[in-house]
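User: Please run a holo structure prediction.
Assistant: Happy to. Please share the sequence and the ligand.
User: Here you go; the ligand is MU-OXO-diiron.
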Amino acid sequence: MSKRISDRVTWVGKIDWELTSFHGDELSTHKGSSYNSYLIRDEKNVLIDTVWKPYDCEFVSRLKQEIPLDEIDYIVMNHNEVDHSGALIEILREIPNTPIYCTAKGEAILRGHYHQDWNFVKVKTGDTLNLGATTLTFIEAPMLHWPDTMFSYLSGENILFSNDGFGQHYATESLFNDRVCAAEVMREALKYYVNILNPFSPMVTRKVKEIINMNLPLAMICPSHGVIWKENPMQIVEKYLQWADSYQENQVTIVYDTMWQSTRHMAQAAAEGVLEVLPDATVVLKNAAIDDKNDILTEIFKSKGILMGSPTINNGYSYAIAGLLEMARGLKFKKKKAAAFGSFGWSGEAVKMISAHLQEAGFELPIEGLRQQWVPDGDMLDECRKWGHEFAQTLTV
Ligand code: FEO
């Protein structure tokens, strides 16, 4: 069902209540998601973005109930990943000559995906499209989070269409941020930022400042996933500036995997040591083999220090920890300290390997890792506690 969001703009997207993962299995979506598409009605009518291909026919059929397709004068594609461009084939089958406004990179990506010679109109920052009473202004936003990304600003209605930027994987029929749980939607916005946008934080900072300096009146920010920021839309802009600036809270996250509980006991003893030094800190323990990887990465993002542990397994270490380390490498966390720990039986390579991969992922290692053989007894757990204490002291300077 379409929903009017302002005098001239109607939401015509798809709410995906059943989505549990995104980008293959790269990103968990425990709250579902939506593919937001918007219809602007003026002297000229514009469709902004579409939906993921599995919903293309459903989308087009509902769009026809809202407007005859041949009354759509332009399509604007702010970003061309398949979750937004997936219905283009189905729409353009009926209105094949409709101009598609996108960046040069956007055209290349659409050609690469769909191999169609559509009516592309390339736009750059500052280009405008007059619709009658309103005007669209295009703002290139490369690497937020693909090279083709742009934002479109609708003067007259004062709406910024930001595509993935400021989005969240969050399914709701309520559509606006003031009609859902504020803490829940901000948690999903943070998870989205960490797992999708964090590698591009320097570009986020530059682009967000550029947009703030444009002094555009802002009634709403309409992303392509999740709720529309209608109540205090600047709150998510300010959050992005904080998150992009080597964000951290007074938190230490201890991530481990364990075979027979020895490494878990080490983790818990280290946590006690951390709290001796940082009694007000939030200390979070996560079992990498059980807890959701993207939620763990979000906790790592919030932390100033990370302890990562695994038993030695087959001269290596846990695949769950290895997967997290590879994801952390790609996410490019900044200004975080870390150390490795783990139990072993006879060879004990895990700590050395995890330490090397932590360093490769950009973490600073202020102390040596800690290895313990077989099952830790009271003295060994005391050593873990002291090791956690020593690590926490490096977070106070
Ligand atoms: Fe929501 Fe980058 O696609």
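The chain is about 35% helix and 20% strand.
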